[in-house]
Amino acid sequence: MVIMDYGEAVTEFEEFFSERYFQEVVEAAKDGRDSVVVEFEKLDMFSFELTDYLRENPVSGVDAAEEGVQSHEQVTGEDFSVRFVNMPEEDQVLLKNLRSEHIGKFIPVEGMIKRASQVKPEVVSAIFECTACGDRYEKEQDSSELKSPYKCDCGSKKFDAIEKNMTDTQMVTLEEDPESREGSEQPSSLSVRLEGDLVDPDFQKKIVPGNVVEVTGIMRERPLKKNSKKFDIYMEANHVEPTQQEFEEFELSGDEAEEIRAMAEEGNIYERIVNSIAPSIFGHDRIKEAIALQIFGGVKKTREDGVKSRGDLHLLLIGEPGTGKSQMLKFTGELAPKGRYVVGKSSTGAGLTASVVKEESTGEFSLEAGAVVLANKGMAAIDEIDKMAAEDRSSLHEAMEQQQISVSKANIQATLNAETSILAAGNPKFGRFDPYEPIPEQINIGDTLLSRFDMIFPVLDEPDEEKDKELAGTILQNHIDPEDTDAEIQQEELRKYIAYAKKNVRPQLTEEASQKIQEFYVNMRSKGDEGSVPITARQLEALIRISEAAARAQLKEEVDVSDAEKAIDLLTYCLKQVGMDPETGDFDIDIIESGVSNSQRNRLQTIKQLIDTLAGDDDSAEIEEVLEHAQEDGIEEDKAEEIIEKLKREGELFEPQQGHIQKI
User: Fold this and answer.
1) Nearest Cα to Cα of residue 47 among 89, 11, 83, 86
2) Of 274, 374, 379, 515, which has the most beta carbons under 10 Å away?
3) Rounded CA gap, 451 and 448, in Å?
4) What's the pTM value of the predicted model, to 2 decimals?
5) Considering only CA atoms, which of 217, 215, 218, 219 is closest in space to residue 233?
6) Burial of 87 (0-12, 13-18, 19+ CB in 10 A)
7) What is the per-residue pLDDT across 186-230, written as a single tens digit (0 to 9) for each?
């Protein structure tokens, strides 16, 4: 194979930019950009010898391209770069497959940005002056240390650096996609060096930890230590193209936006969206509706006094094994860009929020974002949240309400954004629900975290011949024809629709909708028995967020009464499942907020007072006597025993001797 020389490459590039890519260069220059992005396929169609030359001699190839574009009449600056994008799939190399043979080659790689350093200036070349005779020499700088010329013509070896030519650089760590790993393989990572307009403030919006990107560039090597014979490989980036990023950063063409608006004008768009959520899972319509609304989200607001109210919705699914919870979490994590799926048992607080790590190259401490921060403006799906250690779970409190993570470790005081919707799933304490116990008592998560979820859904597995027949049919059909789904809107189309809605639609609450929500709230509050609170301001905030999400899903600029009714209907459904006192049949939000209903609290107080009243000289009371008096006060014996056991477990009572009880 005959490879062209540098001069021929320059000529070919001049021809390419004047004949095939003239307009693109004009637009780049007109927009004031410092580079033009070239589709690799178009260059390959123009001259495959040119693309081969670029692959094999990337440094010369990129230089030839930049020299070739200089002949274009619109290009005036000398620092105009040429960036190449969308190389063929067969050229792409997995991070785990990078070897010494790739050093010096021009290749594309894909991975998730795990860490991005700060942008720092770096010396490209410097002018040195001889201290003896004043002669000046320019020297290119390609190592980590500033190197002066070896010797002056006058014989002196002493030089002063008097002028430095600098460029801005940034180091980014890429981690390979989990799907490309096999078995117990460790995730491979690669350092990528960015410079020039790749570190411009505008371009930096794409360089966010959590974004999945494709990087084209030249593989380089550097010694692990000074004079070491072992080398580390890194990439000198030519271009970075996000393949998965925040909904708000999605680029949609005019035609796509037009199609999306046309879809929204169809009367049944809300139902179509709900039916497109996890279509291969049978049933769970209310949960799918809630997940759809969670993906769209409410509107974040910042008030004049600086107080922010979140727009993101948090959902909790507590269900028996085999009810499809994990599959719904997986689906949602994949649908939402920057979606993260983590499992509680194998996650720590640092892994969810942020950890402090030591940079190998500089020795400095830096922050590494955890799953909830990486999913900023996306979604974190946390499975088996009940299996997490309590101290790890508590790290989610700040992320869920304040939507940020504060870190104070190793001389680093930082606040990271975590505008993340959380979809969590777990099992009841004993695997299956006890129909005679309030559901919140069977959720082993902690009341403070439980109260931060906007909606909580129990997922029951109850035998029902008709439903079981349909469920079995759906599962079997999925196995017979796994490619066939009943989604009314395909996943890619739905993703674009959501991106358009989140970017362009910020629905305002109308007076009528506000009135409807207020009526519901006041009406519910008035239903509480003495001492019980059926609903709190937290549920009122949740109602507003759900209403806004329903309006946004239909691309409406205003939240009307129908949206408020959808929110009320969904929240009432949740409260019936988890916020109802089984003894009185009334709504009692204390069950969720504190894990104890008002009727239980009253019984607790009664038992404590009886122990005080019946206590003898040794401050203890006979259990039998307490149970008798409790029955006289209308508390059944088994309920009274249960309360005594509960107070013993919580450390409020103890048995000083057999058959006696005493307060601590």
Assistant:
1) 11
2) 379
3) 6
4) 0.70
5) 219
6) buried
7) 778 888 888 887 888 777 777 877 778 889 998 888 777 777 777
- Taking CA atoms, 160 is separated from 85, 123, 140, 167, 317, in Å, by 42, 15, 15, 20, 67
Which candidate, 486, 459, 365, places its Cα nearest to that of 117? 365
Helices (H), 554-632: 561-578, 590-593, 598-614, 623-632
Q: What is the DSSP letter of 524?
A: H
Q: Of the candidates 528, 569, 537, which has an alpha carbon nearest to the alpha carbon of residue 550?
A: 569
* Distances from the Cα of 493 to the Cα of 193, 335, 599, 640, angstroms: 34, 11, 50, 58
**Which residue, 418, 379, 411, is CA-closest to 395?**
418
The residues with which 343 forms a beta bridge, in sequence order, are 383
Contacts 24+ apart (CB under 8 A), 287-290: 287/315, 287/317, 287/328, 287/457, 287/459, 288/328, 289/570, 290/315, 290/455, 290/457, 290/570
CB-CB contact of 154 with 132 (8 Å):
yes
| Tens-digit pLDDT profile for residues 578-608 | 655 545 555 555 554 444 555 565 667 777 7
**Helix/strand/coil (H/E/C) assignment for every residue in 92-139:** CCCHHHCCHHHCCCEEEEEEEEEEECCCEEEEEEEEEEECCCCCEEEE
Cβ atoms < 10 Å from Cβ of 636: 12
Closest CA to 81 of 126, 145, 17: 17
Give Cα 29 distance to the centre of its chain: 36
The identity of residue 42, as a single letter, is K
Helices (H), 31-82: 40-46, 48-56, 58-69
Closest C-alpha to 238, from 46, 68, 85: 85
- CB neighbourhood size of 439 (10 A): 21
> Residue 459 has what pLDDT?
76
The whole-angstrom separation of Cα 387 and Cα 345 is: 5
CA-nearest of 193, 235, 221 to 92 is 235
Nearest to 60 by CA among 202, 218, 189, 167: 218
The Cβ of residue 110 has, within 10 Å, a number of other Cβ atoms equal to: 19
Q: Are strands 212-223 and 189-195 parallel, antiparallel or unpaired?
A: unpaired
Note the pLDDT of residue 479: 59
Question: For 90, which DSSP code?
Answer: G
Beta-bridged to residue 622, according to DSSP, are 660
Residue indicated by tokens 């002949």? 71
Given a contact cutoff of 8 angstroms between Cβ atoms, the answer to whether 81 and 66 are in contact is: yes
pLDDT in tens, 235-266: 888 888 887 666 656 667 777 788 888 887 87
Q: 321: how many CB neighbours lie within 10 A of its CB?
A: 11
What is the per-residue burial (b if ≥16 Cβ within 10 Å, else e) of 155-184?
Answer: eeeebeeeeeeeeebbbbbbbbbeeeeeee
Alpha helix stretches (DSSP H) within 481-526: 491-504, 511-526
User: For 516, phi and psi rounded to 5 degrees?
Assistant: -65, -45
Quick one: the chain helix, strand, coil %, rounded to 5? 40, 25, 35
Measured in whole angstroms, the distance separating CA 84 from the mean position of its chain's CA atoms is 29
Q: How many CB atoms lie within 10 A of CB 318?
A: 28
Under DSSP, the state recorded for 546 is H
Q: Residue 587 carries which DSSP code?
A: B
